[in-house]
Amino acid sequence: MYAVIRVRGHSKIKRNAFETLEQLQLRRVNHMVLLPETETAKRMLQSVKDYVTWGELTAEELQKVIVESARFQGNRRVREEDLQEKYKSGAAQVAGKLLSGESGLAEFSIKRVVRLHPPRKGWEGLKTSYRAGGSLGYRGGEINTLIDRMLPKLESAN
Q: Residues 23, 134, 30, CA angle at the centre, nearest 5°?
């Protein structure tokens, strides 16, 4: 499963890329969506590669995203207790089902778009590809470290 994060805004964007971003529901910077690894998704990502970054998501990182940033329909936070109560499975099981393709976010009443914070220490570069030292385009497994930098910093219990 791909995690796709919008990096650049809407100024001077090409029409084709704008329509593809609308289809992906990536309307704002620092928003993330999850896409299955299909040929259609790959073609869509290639058409918006100058505006987004993407890579393969691990189960642990998806579990963190679900608990810390995902929202139910109605804009309520996703909590471990709510998942246990409503669906008889925790965040780890939900992440496993999503990654395997058994079910989608809609089956758990979770919104498709996840709103993230800007990354701590900032973006590498907003106009260059990841291979050239920037932030745009395909980054493989390194998307997990980026998402970790974008998740809200939880207060320690000390």
A: 40
Rounded to a whole number of angstroms, the CA Rg of the chain reads: 16
- Is the distance from CB of 94 to CB of 42 less than 8 angstroms? no
Q: Using one digit for the tens of pLDDT, what is the confidence trace for 54-75?
A: 999 999 999 999 988 889 988 8
Encoded tokens for 95:
């992440």
How many other C-beta atoms can be found within 10 angstroms of the C-beta atom of residue 24?
20
Identity of residue 148:
D
- Total count of residues recorded for the chain: 158
Domain layout of the chain by residue ranges: 2-58+114-150, 60-108
Question: May I ask the CATH class of domain 2-58+114-150?
Answer: alpha beta
Q: What pTM value is reported for the model? A: 0.89
